[in-house]
From TrEMBL:
Pathway as given in its UniProt record: Porphyrin-containing compound metabolism; protoporphyrin-IX biosynthesis; 5-aminolevulinate from L-glutamyl-tRNA(Glu): step 1/2
SUPFAM superfamilies listed in its UniProt record: Glutamyl tRNA-reductase catalytic, N-terminal domain, Glutamyl tRNA-reductase dimerization domain, NAD(P)-binding Rossmann-fold domains
CDD domains: NAD_bind_Glutamyl_tRNA_reduct
Binding site for NADP(+): 190-195
EC number: 1.2.1.70
Organism this protein belongs to: Actinoplanes friuliensis DSM 7358
Note: During catalysis, the active site Cys acts as a nucleophile attacking the alpha-carbonyl group of tRNA-bound glutamate with the formation of a thioester intermediate between enzyme and glutamate, and the concomitant release of tRNA(Glu). The thioester intermediate is finally reduced by direct hydride transfer from NADPH, to form the product GSA.
Record comment regarding domains: Possesses an unusual extended V-shaped dimeric structure with each monomer consisting of three distinct domains arranged along a curved 'spinal' alpha-helix. The N-terminal catalytic domain specifically recognizes the glutamate moiety of the substrate. The second domain is the NADPH-binding domain, and the third C-terminal domain is responsible for dimerization.
Protein name: Glutamyl-tRNA reductase
Key words, A-Z: NADP, Oxidoreductase, Porphyrin biosynthesis
Binding annotation for substrate: 49-52, 109, 114-116, 120
Amino acid sequence: MNLLSVGASYRTAGVDILERLTIAGSDIPAVLQKLVAQPYIGEAVVVSTCNRVEVYAAVTGFHGGLGDVCNVLAEHSGIGANDLAAHLYVHYDEAAVRHSFRVSAGLESMVVGEAQILGQLRDAYHAATEADSAGRMLHELMQQALRVGKRAHAETGIDRAGQSVVTAALEVAAATFDGDLAGRTGLVVGAGAMGALSVATLTRSGVGPLQITNRGASRAERLAEAYGATAVPFAELEAALAAADVVVCATASTEPVLTGELLAGRDKPLVVLDLAVPRDVAPEVADLPNVTVVDIDGLAASRRTLPAAAETAAVEQIVAAEVEHFLAWLRGAEIAPTVAALRTRADDVVSAELRKLSSRRPEFTEEQRADVSRTLHRVVQQLLHSPTVRVRQLAAEPGGDQYAALLRELFDLDVPHATQADAVPEIGGQA
């Protein structure tokens, strides 16, 4: 099996594409089952956030696996395969490992170093575990990616400022109010993970009074109580908007929540931060007087919050070392079925010879037959011990996959999924 990562992010696709690609949490189990039902896909994990949709898969061939993933994404999004291909990035084997570690460390995030991606990866891994779509390879990849992300944040200062998409959005909003949001009235629409992060960030920025509204009133009330904010019934959204200076929208709605009709007639500046994918704010809102809309596309264009080059370099070094460590494990894991097949072949040969001996020497007692059997097995195991230990060591080194291939060729071993008929060396651009 080989690793394949296919996805689209804010770097390769606009919000119009991402909002069609995005996979709601309730839909992820069905998409995972559809992926692993494809002929070339054995395992799958889906990551869907406000600015990226990715599939990590263990596949039996590059071209077949890529075609399977693209077909599932095209069917889900309703975007034709050819049109979708223009917005996708692809990583294979080592490049897929490196990409997953860079994602977990925050190097691929819109705001480099943000820590929210760790929680999103954890949720994606949990969903795959619940759907039983992650096998040995993706269990190991996801566990190591989460560990690498935690290590990067713990050992470097890449997230020292508590950066996130929300903080970057607030920097844009602050420019409308002379660089200071303190004392401005805030409203957060949505009480999910992004809504909670928005409330926390707005509170730290001095925004207040702060109101929260959500279709599910209980979640808004719990969030408001935790931060000293005020929960507003969703039915009173229009009145809450009229009082607000800064609005953050972060719902899971598939239709616009804020429309031109709700926001028409503003006589004071309003900044609306649309952090949802699909977008919460209808396109006509951006044309209203006194209303400024900042969405994911606008944030991607600004890229306002970047860590120092030294901090990024330190994380890159961690990622590089961890990629080598994972690849060594992967090479060792790949040789194991071949070694097991070799030992099984040896046992089969011994058993066949013992049956022949039994027919030629019927006078042997059961005790004698047992002695001969133990001796033959012991000799074969001793002969195989040193070569199999050594081949495991060699397989863990770069280029070690050739040793497994040589063993299969020399002993004519049939190892399932050991061949890579349509594999390619390494493919994939930056996400």
